């Protein structure tokens, strides 16, 4: 049996409506970052990382340079101290020679002018050698007694000098670069009799 085309029972099914297109960015429809924006962000982060590494390297190099400068200065100070220490030991050994020459010149007096002149010449040469090494005599006679550079071996009353004044040098003292090689042995003026200092 044939069916008629206009039979409602044989009507073709209605076409399905297409599904709604998915919108980018979620329900609110906001567009997410594109590939170019993501690449720019990654490049900026990489740049910041490289800058931080560079700053760390620069800081480390600066600290290393400062440490090396300190080491170099310390080494130079130690070297100079060792050289000065060695020179002082040599000078200490020469001081008794100077003492003996001065005593010999004083003992001869006017006797044997040629001998005295020869000894005086040697003494002058030795004194010049010591001065060339930075050695200087410690002043004492007529000065106030200074325990840092003077060594008192006696104390006598002296009406011509105030108490505590050096009135006689028994043995000369010397120093080198503010370092006392040997203190000056001196006699110091004491209190006057009847002054209440006894």
Features:
198 residues, alpha+beta, Hemagglutinin Ectodomain, Chain B, Nucleotide Exchange Factor Grpe, Chain A, domain 2, 2 domains, 3-stranded mixed sheet, elongated
Description:
The structure is a single chain. By secondary structure, the chain is of the alpha+beta class. It has two domains: 92 residues, Hemagglutinin Ectodomain, Chain B (Alpha-Beta Complex), CATH 3.90.20; 63 residues, Head domain of nucleotide exchange factor GrpE (Nucleotide Exchange Factor Grpe, Chain A, domain 2), CATH 2.30.22. The protein contains two helices and six strands, in the order ααββββββ. The strands form two sheets. It has a three-stranded antiparallel sheet with strand order 1-4-5. A hairpin with a 2-residue loop joins strand 4 and strand 5.
Q: Return residue spans where pLDDT drops below 50 for at least 5 consecutive residues.
A: 22-27
Number of distinct helices:
2
Describe the main β-sheet briefly: 3 strands, antiparallel
Distance separating the two termini: 164 Å
Strand content: 15-25%
Name of the top-level CATH class of the largest domain:
Alpha Beta
Radius of gyration: 50 Å
Q: What is the second-level CATH architecture of the largest domain?
A: Alpha-Beta Complex
How much helix, percentage-wise, in residues? 40-55%
Q: Pairing-aware structural class of the strands and helices? A: alpha+beta
Question: What is the approximate shape?
Answer: elongated
Can you write the helix and strand succession as a string?
Answer: HHEEEEEE
**CATH topology-level fold name of the largest domain:** Hemagglutinin Ectodomain, Chain B
What do the pLDDT scores average to?
A: 78
């Amino acid at each position: 049996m044939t069916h008629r085309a206009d039979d409602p029972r044989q009507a073709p099914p209605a076409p399905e409506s297409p599904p709604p297109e998915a919108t980018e960015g979620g329900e609110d429809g906001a567009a997410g970052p594109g590939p170019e924006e993501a690449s720019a962000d990654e490049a900026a982060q990489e740049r910041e990382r490289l800058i931080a590494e560079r700053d760390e390297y620069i800081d480390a190099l600066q600290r290393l340079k400062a440490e090396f400068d300190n080491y170099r200065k310390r080494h130079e100070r130690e070297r100079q101290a060792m050289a000065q220490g060695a020179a002082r030991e040599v000078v200490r050994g020469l001081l008794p020679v100077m003492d003996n020459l001065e005593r010999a010149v004083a003992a001869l007096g006017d006797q044997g002018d040629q001998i005295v002149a020869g000894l005086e010449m040697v003494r002058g040469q030795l004194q010049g050698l010591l001065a060339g090494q930075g050695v200087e005599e410690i002043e004492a006679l007529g000065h106030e007694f200074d325990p840092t550079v003077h060594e008192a071996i006696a104390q006598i009353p002296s009406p011509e000098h105030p108490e505590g004044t050096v009135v006689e040098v028994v043995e000369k003292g010397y120093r080198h670069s503010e370092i006392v090689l040997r203190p000056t042995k001196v006699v110091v003026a004491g209190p006057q009799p009847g002054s209440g200092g006894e």
